[in-house]
Amino acid sequence: MLCLLGLVQTILRVAGSQVHKSQFAADNNLPTSSNHRHTLHKHGCEESLPVDTERVDWRSIWEIMLAQFLLGSAMLVYRADFAVTVSQHYGTSNTVNGYISAMASIVGTLTGFAVGYIADIYHGNTRRLLLHAAVAETVSLLATANSPSVILFTASHTGLAFATAIGRVASIQTILSHGSRQHTGALIGTGATVMSVARMLAPAASGVSQELLSYYGPAVLSATLSFAGTVVLLVIPSKVPTRTHAE
User: Fold this and answer.
1) Is 241 among the domain residues?
2) Which of 47, 101, 222, 238 is the most exposed place for a label (fewest CB within 10 A)?
3) Is 187 found in the same domain as 76?
4) What is the pTM of this model?
């Protein structure tokens, strides 16, 4: 993932240099008086910008993206063979598995409508909200892995849907709050790429874990990845003070 962030930084630098070259060539083609006025206007705009628009400070967000990768991977591994795992563990039918998934989806949808009100309780501290969502996700995954009955499993699965719906929004907002408005596209695109890598690796990881530990494998691996993401948020602090997205 760190290599991915470095690749994105390199692409942004190359793109920025090409833009500056094209602007310089356009300035040389302007008349003398217009070129002088354009230069003054350009210097005035550069002085008014408080941040460097060419670079993204990856050092201030790498731990957030690492936690997003681990937490997202935990859920992807958990869902990769969900129906097979539940059927083998509890002997449920496809109809019951569909009801369990439908209930979790309803809870996740309702949580999506309420996540704004939940975030207001934290007074804009999205990193703390993400940490609490990660803890709730870890506890829910541990509960699903150790549930003795299908009823307790359904309750844990529903709590997991609630935690992931909040964590999905909180992770994006936390990444954006550590950057400026000029870097919104780069930050969102990099976050989506990180999750795409997780989607590519999750099915293989789920299958290997199931081969090694039977139907307990995906649950154990998911709980481990979620716990690792929580530890990252607890141990590694933010490198710079959080900036508002309006900067």
Assistant:
1) no
2) 47
3) yes
4) 0.72
**pLDDT score at 209:** 84
3-state secondary structure of 49: coil
How many domains, in total, are found in the chain?
A: 2
Q: What is the pLDDT of residues 182-224, one digit of tens each?
A: 677 777 888 788 888 888 888 888 888 888 877 777 888 899 9
User: Angle CA(202)–CA(206)–CA(210) in degrees, nearest 5?
Assistant: 175
Q: What is the dihedral angle through the alpha carbons of 139, 145, 147, 148, rounded to the nearest 10 degrees?
A: -160
Q: Which of 61, 13, 16 is nearest to 180 (CA)?
A: 61
Residue 245 resides in a domain: no
Considering the domain architecture, whether residues 41 and 94 belong to the same structural domain is answered as no
What are the angstrom distances between the C-alpha of 116 and each of 59, 87, 166, 206?
28, 36, 9, 33
The two structure tokens encoding residue 66? 């690492």
Q: Residue 114 has which token pair?
A: 């309420």
Q: Is 147 helix (H, G, I), strand (E, B) or coil?
A: coil
CA pair distance 174, 165, nearest whole angstrom = 15
